[in-house]
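Ticket #4471: complex job returned nothing on first submit. Input attached below:
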Amino acid sequence: MGVYVIALKMLIGNRGKFYAMVFGVALTSLIITQQSSIFLGLMSRTVGFIFDTPQPDLWVMDPKVQFVDDVKPLQDTKLFQVRGVEGVEWAVPLYKGALRARLPNGTFQTCNVIGLDDATLVAGPPTMIDGSLADLRRADGVIVDEAGANGKLAKPGATPTSPRVPLRVGDVLELNDNRAVVVGIARATRTFQSQPVIYTTYSRAMRFAPRERKLLSFILAKVRSGYSSRDVALQINRQTGLAAYTAPQFKGLTIRYFMRNTGIPINFGMAVGLGFLVGVAIVGQTFFSFIVDNMRYLGILKAMGANNRLLFHMILLQTVLVGIVGSGLGMGIAALTSILAKNSELAFYLPWQVPVVTVLATSLITLITTVASLRKVFSLEPGIVFRG
Amino acid sequence: MSAAIQCRDVTKSYATGTTMTPALQGITLEIQPGELFMLVGPSGCGKTTLISVIAGILSQDGGMCRIFGEDLKSMSDEERTAFRLRNVGFVFQAYNLIPSLTAAENVSIPLLLAGHDRNEALIRANEVLRHVGLGAKLEAKPAELSGGQQQRVAIARALVHNPRLIVCDEPTSALDHTTGGEIMALFRREVLKGDRALVIVTHDSRIFHYADRIGVMDDGRVVRIAHSPDELELETSKD
Ligand SMILES: Nc1ncnc2c1ncn2[C@@H]1O[C@H](COP(=O)(O)OP(=O)(O)OP(=O)(O)O)[C@@H](O)[C@H]1O
Ligand SMILES: [Mg+2]
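Support reply: We reran it on our side without changes. The output follows.
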């Protein structure tokens, strides 16, 4: 065991190199953790609305819809057709569209308006902060999401320099020239679009929305017990020509759309890959030169009777220590930023898989580094110890 | 008692590009237990190569070399390494102490390599350091020690696990005359105990008189063996 203390002292004794290696690993794991969690954050935001709407078993829509924000309106009669499909317990309409809100100071802000079935209010926000969902039944009632109320929909302060005042229950908005009264503030999972979300009833949404022939965005359906969602989805498709997806299917559809049609995965993939390469370069290079610096001492250890296995263990211990300290530091900073960014526009999602992947990546760097230096150490002739 | 080192017709060449440089061209030599044997000769005559073969860190090409009766060439690399760990101590011209370790830690290394407990190894290292006159410098780093003190630490390191053979390449040539003499006195007093054999390669004629025998090498061969420096000078002056 004592030799390992020696190995650690040799490592830490070479302060400059030690810090450089720890820095390299920290930077790498910071980049990998941060980029992956922003990527996952963005991806989970794309399906935030589906996530917030757990009540229906099936999301019924135009078959050409490619993702959750890609609304292709349906005729109202489709709702009755879906209700008529065997195995459907209930089916409710949902309006989802972008409407312009006029703020008290005269500026306009596009909002994401969700119209909920008047009778059931299915698909309402998951958490109410002020007021209650049932308050939507009051005249002209709307519920505004917290981020929108505090941010884009906040009212200007009393003087130009004073802070903006968040929108509160009782405040009045103008949505497409219609009066709307804030009856509640809700917290919704952030969506990919950073626009404010306004919840209201389906019939009121119809009134707010510009007159068009078709306004029904989605039909949310519950499957009767004893029926499988898959079979009922198939029946809906046969009888109405509409696509019906379970929530996981709809999330998958949306995420695949973003993966295929945006540069997001490539950009983040490149950032992560680059981080990895930077790590390999810095850590590999520094560790290699650390080994070269120590070649003479490794040779002496070999001459004195350290076999290759022991030297391998010593070097492994050194790289593992660098790996642990460095990735701990990097992931710590990443976790800290994600905590600090919790209530900001930044998308951070740090599930346990991210640190695991980061640790695997750093281990890989460590392993590459170790193996690269080992070749040099194993082929080291102890005879060099006597050379000048 | 059988010889500590027994070399017969040992040859060794180095490959440099396409040509082979012969370094040892048939060395026949015996070194006895309890003997201080010096190897001298002009630069490039093969002293370091020979001592490397004797210490088991280099394999000869031809001939036979037995160390305490063992033929290291027939051993695997692993076995040779284990053999050195048990039987050989090293002292170098450049001391070669690990800079980030204290004197005691440096000395403890051979014991740690042999699997001894760290505390136990440090206690023994401190004891040996006291024997070489460094009882006051146990916790000093090599950079805080003079050349002579560093070489004492290196000697303690070569001694600590009580090997039967100690090899030294130019142990005094980085030291001034007085310090070199002190180091040699230390070798005679502390190192040459029991049946331990000591092989020292040196250029330093001022220390020749510490030797029991002196092997004079030239061009890869041992050309004569002298029992005292006077014998050497006599022969040199005859030429
Ligand atoms: N690793 C090597 N590769 C090639 N040739 C070598 C190598 N080591 C030594 N030689 C050659 O072998 C011969 C003997 O070298 P060696 O180092 O044994 O001499 P030496 O007597 O120790 O010399 P010095 O007194 O200068 O230390 C020299 O010609 C040297 O150039
Ligand atoms: Mg030499």
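The mean pLDDT of chain A is 88. Closing as resolved unless it happens again.
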